[in-house]
Structures are given as C-alpha cells and as structure tokens.
Amino acid sequence: MIRLVFPxxxxxxxxxxxxxxxxxxxxxxxxxxxxxxxxxQAAIIVDNSAVCSGAIIKSDTILTAASCVYEYSIDYIQxxxxxxxxxxxxxxxxxxxCGKITHPQYSYWRFDFNLALLTLCDxxxxxxxxxxxxxxxxxPQDGAWLSVSGWGSTSWWGSWWDRCFGSLPSQxxxxxxxxxxxxxxxxxxxxxxxxxxxxxSGYTMCTNYGTxxxxxxxxxxxxxxxxxxxxxxxxGCTTKPDVYASVIWFQSWIDANTSPDTPSSSTSSSPISxxxxxxxSxxxxxxxSxxxxxxxSxxxxxxSTTPSSTTTSATYSTSVxSxxxxTASLGTTSTSTIPxxxxxxxxTSxxxxxxSPSSxxxxxxxxxxxxxxxxxxxxDTPSSSPTDAST
Length: 391
Description:
Blueprint lengths: L1 H17 L12 E2 L8 E6 L2 E10 L2 E4 L1 H4 L7 E5 L11 E10 L13 E5 L13 E2 L9 E6 L7 H8 L7 E8 L1 H11 L11 E4 L13 E4 L2 E8 L7 E5 L4 H6 L24 H4 L21 E2 L7 E3 L9 E3 L4 E4 L13 E5 L4 E5 L21 E2 L4
Parallel strand pairs: 8-13
Antiparallel strand pairs: 1-10, 2-3, 2-5, 3-4, 4-7, 5-6, 6-7, 9-10, 9-12, 10-11, 11-14, 12-13, 13-14, 15-21, 16-17, 18-19, 19-20
C-alpha cells in the first residue's frame, strides 16, 4: 500500500503546493493591454520561439537584454512588433535582424551591463501600434510607480512550470511596479542569488516584490511617463526584487552604435503613455523631470550626469553634435565645454570644469575620450545612487 501511495503523493504535491497553472494568465500582478498602450513593445524571437521582450528605440533598432541573444547568431534571431500576441498568428510585423551588438562589459554573472542592440534589416514605419520610445533623462526616485510589459510567466513558480507545460500568456501583459531601494535590493538578492558581487550597482535599478517580471520577461521595457527607464535583466517572480539595467547611463553607448533616426511617416514618433496608472502614483511618481533630469542647452556648454559618490573617473560620452556634448561621468560632477573643430580640420583644445560638493577640479578632456562607451572594468561601477549634476 505504501508503495502505491508514495508515488501518488509525489505527483500530487507540486499541484497542491503551487496550485497548478493560472487560469487567467498575466505578467505577475498585471493585466492584458492593447499594443496601442505599449507601441514600443517588441517580442524577441529566437529559433522561431518568443523568448524575451525588447523596446523599439529607433526605427531600425531594438534594445533588449544581452542574455536573450548573446549565444545566438543573427540568423536565428527575429523581432515581431505591432501585436499583442506572443505566438505568431499572422498579426503584427515580423522582421529579420541584420546586426547585433552586446555591451562589451556584459557578463552572465552580473546584471548591470545586460544590454544588446539589434539592428533590423528594414526600417519600421511609425503608426499607432509602432512607435520608438525615448530614453529617460532622469532617474526615478524610490517608491515611484512605473510600468513593465511583456509575455512572461504569470506565477512565481513559472520559472519551471512554464518550461515544462508551456502555460505562458498569449497576450501582452502590463503591470505597475514601484522603484525599490538599490542598496536593499543588493542585500536581498545576495540571499537569493549570488553570494559574490552580482552587478547590482549604479548602472542598475530594482523594483519591489509582489508584481513584475518572471521567466521569459527578460528584456522587458520599464517605462516612466512614456520614457524608457530600464531593460529587465532578471525578473524576481515576486519572491525577490526585479533587476533592470538603468538605460540612462548607456545613452552614449547606444548613440555610438546606432545611426540617426529618420521618421518614415507623419505619425508622431513619441510613445503613447498608458492612461491607467495606480491611484497612488500621483503621490509617489515624479511629476516633473525638470528638478532631477539633465537638460539640454542651446549653448555650447554640455550637462553631465554622474552618480553621487564614487572613487573613479571613467566617463560615458556621447558623440559630438555641432558644438555641444552630453556626458555621464562616473567619479565627479562636471560641466564640460567642448569647442567644435574648425572647418579646416584642426581641432581646438577641449576643456572641462568639474564641480563637486567637496572640491573643484579643472581638467582637460582629450577629443579621443568622446568615443568612450563606459568604464573598462567592473571596478569602475559606482556603488551609490546616480544623481543629476544639474541640481
């Protein structure tokens, strides 16, 4: 009798404990939405299966997580947009990928540089269901409400259940999440994940437990008021915080590896903001980016964005357009003035005046530094929360 009952218990236990698949699948804590609510959304297809999400950032460029595509040739990668359906059902637009660039500092063991750019073979035409999303110019505060969307697992046991039984949602899901303190996130993640340095740094941000991404949501766009804030590096499946690459610190890398966008229709290229937000968002989400976000200047003086405390001085630099340049410096808060080159090809010297609460430093920025895509070693990673140098 015992020999008969014991195998039955082994079969019944997972169902009893985990409750079986969710009869109304959705991103954990989220709900189904129309593609018009997230026209920047892209499904990353690898070997004919939707495995990740991504964001349309230019008419020919998708930003996703490097872990989704790092091991695959572009011959096996496609992108589908303009549809809420996870599985190919004839809806949407399916596109081939002609180029792939992963961040040079990406590592499987870390979260902070988990980004990849996919170059489409054909440019997208903007419409109500296809619109590039701009990268944010500010860092959301702890407790702010943001949205995340994807086709991933809908229950915390999804990381194994969905792989075995294929119960992933067929429709695009969106959930509202709150920004979680990064230092506490690193402590919480150390318990659940790596006991060594796991790359939760100034280049990352976290969202709280309870709702958010899970298995197959990797690469999902995190959005604040119609601006791209993060790309999901790993979902917590409600048992631990979600970790995102904070894209504001990678703008120069994106610019250095993409071509200028050209609108292909009269439709506005700015993303549509979702109109349904939590009732508490008005008190906890940023109402204006003017107080904490870098602002563009019509003069030749550029604005630099820096983490608040660090001992290094590696620099993210955007390419120079006309006579202005925007930099995100790690180590000092600086305002850089970089004269443009003369029409004869000779280049004037470039100077940078750095201002910090504790000291003032005058240094020279060589023109070659403008192509720098970020720190060259993980030791350059800031441990504190990024803050705006303009405030």
